[in-house]
Amino acid sequence: MLEVLGVKKKYKNGIEALKGVSLKIETGKKVAIFGENGAGKTTLLKIIATFLLPDEGTVTLEGVNIIKNNKYARKNITISTGMERSFYYRLTVKQNLEFFGMLNGLVGKELKKKVEKVIEKTGLEEYGKIRYMELSKGLKRRLDIARALLKEAKVYIFDEPCAGIDIKTRGGIHKIVNELGKEKIVIFATHEIEDLKKMDRIIAIHNGIKVGELLVHENRDCVENFVKGVC
Ligand SMILES: Nc1ncnc2c1ncn2[C@@H]1O[C@H](COP(=O)(O)OP(=O)(O)OP(=O)(O)O)[C@@H](O)[C@H]1O
Ligand SMILES: [Mg+2]
Q: What region holds the ABC transporter domain (predicted)?
């Protein structure tokens, strides 16, 4: 169980990105975080991934306060943010993955196997030897997802993973998410109705506040109306 309790975040420029957000996500669930541009989704995801510290509130994973226990958080939480600057431009797809795999403690055969596995999962087989700077936007996004999959985590966070992705690859991402969602906690920020319908639950954020939740399986026909109602 991941529990976010009363999380607040104000940036240095005075913007209050989160004004007291609380939510709970059980293991074996995939949850969408939905909200318009600037709603606070990425801020919330970065706090859960311990990339950012909240001003107030706590985040616990299986009862462990992850804000105070950074090591536990880094071991058990993985995030795909789509931040291009976090890759080595001159290294190939494979070299980038090998580097980040090593940072996750993988070496030798285990590292090679894992890199091959995530390349296959994200359909990057043909691009292993291509340098990061030579990849298209969608392929960069896929590599970012592949990197997040290098870790055997309890929580997988995807910040708009389908942005700029073609239909076929989108299907592949949902397959990965579905698989992970059976045993892990998946948090998936998105604006897309089609993505929302594939989740177990939708949590809507507006202006730094949680404004609604919807259980998708019981209310599949209501997703459109739910979305219209909160934005
Ligand atoms: N590093 C930062 N410094 C200052 N303000 C920021 C920073 N990052 C985000 N903000 C502001 O915080 C608010 C929430 O931003 P956030 O990126 O969390 O929104 P979001 O819901 O992810 O939006 P989007 O759908 O566009 O990705 C916005 O008003 C944004 O301008
Ligand atoms: Mg965002």
A: 2-227
For residue 92, the domain's CATH number is 3.40.50.300
- What is the distance between the terminal CA atoms of the chain, rounded to a whole angstrom? 28
CA of 110 from ligand 2 middle (Å) equals 33
Contact (Cβ atoms closer than 8 angstroms) between residue 73 and residue 61: yes
Judge whether 221 lies within some domain: no
Residue nearest to atom 31 of ligand 1 (CA): 38
Domain with 41, as residue range(s), is 2-192
For 134-183, the pLDDT digits (tens) are 999 889 999 999 999 999 999 999 999 988 788 888 888 899 999 999 99
Is residue 214 domain-resident? no
216 in a structural domain = no
What's this model's pTM, rounded to 2 decimal places? Answer: 0.94
Residue 25 lies in a domain: yes
Looking from the CA of residue 189, the nearest atom of ligand 1 is 22
Model pLDDT for residues 13-42, shown as the tens digit of each residue: 999 999 999 999 999 999 999 999 999 999
Residue identified by tokens 């949850």 is 31
